[in-house]
Structure formats: C-alpha cells, structure tokens
Amino acid sequence: MRPLGIPTVIDRIAQQVIATELEGVVDEQFSPSSYGYRPNKSAHEAIENCRINCMQYSWVIDLDIKGFFDNIDHELLLKAVKHYTDKKHILLYVERWLQAPVRLTDGTLKHTEGKGTPQGGVISPVLANIFLDIVFDKWMEKRTPEISFERYADDIVVHCYTIKHALRLLEAIKKRFKECKLELNSEKTKIVYCRRNQKYHPPFKVYYQKFDFLGFTFKPRVVKERGKIKLGFTPAIGSKNISRIGKDVFKMQLHRWVYFPISRIAQLLKLKIRGWINYYGKFRMSELRKLFRLLHLRIAKWVRNKYKRFRRKH
Q1: pTM for the complete prediction?
Q2: In angstroms, rounded to a whole number, what is the distance separating the alpha carbons of residues 308 and 219?
C-alpha cells in the first residue's frame, strides 16, 4: 500500500495540458529501451524484448529503486526538465506542482521538503521518465553501450554476459543513484542467472534463477523451438498475481450470487476475464490454468448453492 496524490479538477486539466506539451518535446529524445508511459510503447513490448535478451545474455540485474516517487530530488528534477526545454510556462508550472503541499485525509497539510512527486498526478510519469532518462538511460548508453536493458518507469532490468561484469556494473549503478540522491532496495535488487541449458551452468551455486518484471515471472521453462524441445528462460504470469487475483475472486463472493442466472454472471465477469487473458495470456497462456481453476471452483460452488439437485455432488 502507498499513498496516492490525487490532483483537484483544475490541476488535473492543467497538468494534462503541460504533460502533453512536454511529452511532445521529450519523447523523441528518450531511449528506445524505455517503455513506460510512452505513446506507441507497451508493457508487452518490454517483456518481449526482455525475453529475447534473456536468451542471449546469461545474467540479469533486477533493479528496484527504494521509494522512487517519494525521493526524487526537486532541484535535480528541475535541472533535468531544463535540459530538454527552456519554455518558461512549463518550468513555472512544474516547479509549482512539485512544491505544492498535499492535503491528507484528516485535513492537515504535508509539505514536500524538497523531494518527491505525488504518485497519481497526471504529470508524474512524464517527470519520472525525464529524470530516469538522464540519471540511468543516457548514463548506461554512454558507459556500457554494448549492454541491453529494459526500463518501464522505475522497473529496470539490465542484461550482462558474465557474473563479474554484473557485479561491477551493479556497484557502478549503486554509486550513480547515490550521486543522484536515490537508493536501491538491497532486499529486492538481485543478480539472476538465466539458466537456459541443461548441460552448462556456473561452477558455483546460483542463489537466484528467476525474477519478476511487470507482473510476469521469468524462469527456466521447457520450450519448443523449431520442432525441438529444450530448456528456455521465458515469462509467464507470476504466482503473486495469481494469488492476488484469486483473493479478488474470493472477495466477490461469487458462490452467493444465487439470485442471478448464469448469463448475468458471465456478463459481470467477462471484462475481468478478458483483461486477464489479454494481458497475462500474451506469453505462455497455459499458465493461466491455475488462475481459472480458482474461478471454476467458485462457479461450481455457485451451481451447488443455486440448484438442489447438485447440492450433494462434488
């Protein structure tokens, strides 16, 4: 759980106008490896690119920035915005929104203290992309142009050929973020081995062999390529998301909707089911069986509750 900063109606309209204008200026200069909150870019593109790179590189650095939206330094962020545009009205409004206090639910005002941008504002994703484009994307392209990475907002995955290179690069990234007044989450940041072959593996014990990115879990799986079955490193819906959706289905109390016909239940559920299939079914749809098994159990219980003749049927 994290607090969201919801703008007032007037601020939301103004932020949308500035965000659209600012996006038109900066989007062409962003790195092609940045996918989050950009026109004609999607999470599926980031995942597909990550899948291809995992088959080429042996190691992955899964980066997690500690409280990114809460810890962005205002001075550095304004400096990054000035790097892309010198339009006075954009700089004026961005500075005002960064400095504006947040009214909490109890009515008290919380001041920004020179850092953080409210997560939930229309302009926050554009500002986050501008900041990380200079702090991370441009720095990576200049320092290690041979290395591939994917960034979706503050979710970052970096690919390396060797464990030594991954360790050195991780230390350099930590130093870079520290210079920019950000910090990596040591518990969630990890180096993962992309095991995609049965025979060849490192001579030492590897602690991490899977990682999560945009709701998908990347790990060794059996795949069929050009008619041959082999071990690959591919994405599928993560177990955390299956558990989360399962809890949501349970909270709906579907088995108690006995006053509805099955056609009405189908109508109420179809948007959710379509969303699950369209997003999580893009890669390895067979993994959705675990999710739909939970839904089937709820519907079976609804049948037993609604029709007496099935009450004793398992």
Answers
A1: 0.87
A2: 45
- C-beta neighbour count of 267 within 10 angstroms: 11
CA–CA separation, 230 vs 243, rounded Å?
Answer: 29
pLDDT higher at 225 or 182: 182
Q: How many CB atoms lie within 10 A of CB 169?
A: 19
pLDDT digits (tens, 9 = 90+) for 35-62: 999 988 999 999 999 999 998 999 999 9
Exposed / middle / buried, residue 176 (Cβ in 10 Å: 0-12, 13-18, 19+): middle
Quickly count: other Cβ atoms within 10 Å of residue 209's Cβ.
14
The C-alpha atoms of residue 194 and residue 57 are separated, in whole angstroms, by 8
pLDDT in tens, 145-194: 999 999 998 999 999 999 999 999 999 999 999 999 999 998 999 999 98
H or E element at residue 91? helix 88-99
CA pair distance 239, 216, nearest whole angstrom: 9
Q: Give the C-alpha separation, 154 to 129, whole Å.
A: 8
What residues contact residue 60 under an 8 Å CB cut-off, 6+ apart? Answer: 54, 157, 158, 159, 160, 166, 191, 192, 194, 211, 218
Side chain identity at residue 237, one-letter code:
I
Contact 42, 35 (CB under 8 A): yes
Residue pair 129/122 in contact (Cβ under 8 Å)? The answer is: no
Residue type, 22: L
- What values do phi and psi take at 245, rounded to 5? -65, -40
